[in-house]
Amino acid sequence: MSEYIIALDQGTTSSRAIVFDKKGSIVSVGQKEHEQIMPRAGWVEHDPIEIRDNMREVIGIALGRANLTRHDIAAVGITNQRETAVVWDKNTGIPVYNAIVWQDTRTQPIVDRIAGDAGVDRYKDIVGLPLATYFSGTKIVWILENVEGAREKAEAGDLIFGTTDTWVLWNLTGGPDGGVHATDVTNASRTLFMDLKTLAWRDDILADFGVPRSMMPEIRSSSEVYGEARDTSLLRETPVAGILGDQQAATFGQAAFDAGESKNTYGTGNFLIFQTGTEIVKSENGLLTTVGYKLGDEPAHYALEGSIAVTGSLIQWLRDQLGIISSAPEVEELAAKVEDNGGVYFVPAFSGLFAPYWRPDARGAIVGLTRFANRNHIARAALEATAFQTREVLDAVNADSGVDLTELKVDGGMIANDTLMQFQADILGVPVVRPVVAETTALGAAYAAGLAVGFWNDLDELRANWQEDKRWTPNDDVAERERQLRLWKKAVTKSMDWVDADVN
Ligand SMILES: Nc1ncnc2c1ncn2[C@@H]1O[C@H](COP(=O)(O)OP(=O)(O)OP(=O)(O)O)[C@@H](O)[C@H]1O
Ligand SMILES: [Mg+2]
């Protein structure tokens, strides 16, 4: 009897394998961080081989900790950091370059070139996205143009592309020996190449970018059997049956399936997703239009998304670059030592500003400094930055949808921070709600896989698994909320227009 589903979460900072039972409860976890490779300002890379090997290891750890074998596992689900691009040789399985990570801004000149006179919204009506370094499309172009011999090999049909879901799937299902080269609609919707209506690659856009069609994976639904894990895997012969990009997976794991339902994930960055059902809604307020999920042959469900590049990674920056804390939770201790931010605002525009501004010319700024300010104020300002950015994205969602959200469902690593969650509620003016299973990203991938193999029967069964754990209620100091928001917005303007021809 197979009583469990395993989810493989290939994240920005780590790879995780999590075993879930039928109630959606966590049975065991294996997790391993991988190196963040930053060769120069603005560049962020991962080693795909390290990721592949870590994934194999964490599968072993998760199974071992629960004393399980592949016979206990009904299906495998995959979820992943979404726009990170890997290009590899399909004959050897060796990547021609490191994975270029979603935060990487090196492709701005390629973005500018392709945008040309038409501007960054050149393909927005078709793909739902503005041209930006964030998405995987221009990262493929960079590899083809900068890695010696890559273009020739790609044109000869030897190189293939994938986001990390595809990289994990291909390796798990055999690699050079018959590996399945596929992705799901949610990941495909982040490339700049997929038509939201037809859910197919656009040959004209691929041609504009100069990316050979033969590199692209097959686009499949988010919930179906893609293939089976192969001989060398501890999961051999287990069906791989679900793929969702991490943010869509978290939404699915929050059981936010229907139009009007939403969630906000606080991880490396923050991502608020608002489901719009089977309707494709165009944003007037700086949000992306993306695919929410597609179950087998059923129609695709779409969503609006507010993507914020830097939230949790700012806390890591305080730890790794500034050295004022030695672990992420310590930021709360520093922040608690002061009554307020002392007038300090921290705009973490490390990769420019994403939603709702989309300003590649912005860079990080700490403003409002006086002789009074100390490290505690900076820690507090760093935490508050997450809440302010979220408020601006929520305002955009409210404006686009025409209805104000009455509460915010949250998940991700940062929601362990009570000070942040209370401040978030205060700044939003609506309650913030955390579910019992906070690992919603992995849970969503498990749900997609479990639905495909009949482990779960329908969405109602999944809805019944959702349980509230904690709720933060806003204070009623509206004047203070508005004052802080005004200062935040002023701080944001100070981060803009920083990048010049000779500054990156
Ligand atoms: N107590 C805390 N206070 C503030 N931030 C925290 C706290 N604990 C963790 N974080 C931040 O949360 C982030 C990790 O959250 P999570 O594991 O959800 O990230 P993620 O984006 O999903 O990562 P990955 O992409 O690797 O899956 C880190 O950036 C870390 O700095
Ligand atoms: Mg994650």
Task: Based on the model shown, name its key terms.
about 500 residues, alpha/beta, 21 strands, about 20% strand, binds adenosine-5'-triphosphate, binds magnesium ion
Write a brief structural summary.
The chain has 504 residues and is an alpha/beta fold. 33% of the residues lie in helices and 21% in strands.
The strand count comes to 21
Major sheet: order of its strands? 15-16-14-13-19-20-21
Mean pLDDT metric: 95
Question: What characterizes the major β-sheet?
Answer: 7 strands, mixed
Q: Which molecules are bound in this entry?
A: adenosine-5'-triphosphate, magnesium ion
Radius of gyration: 22 Å
Separation of the first and last Cα atoms: 56 Å
Number of helices: 16
- Label the overall shape: globular
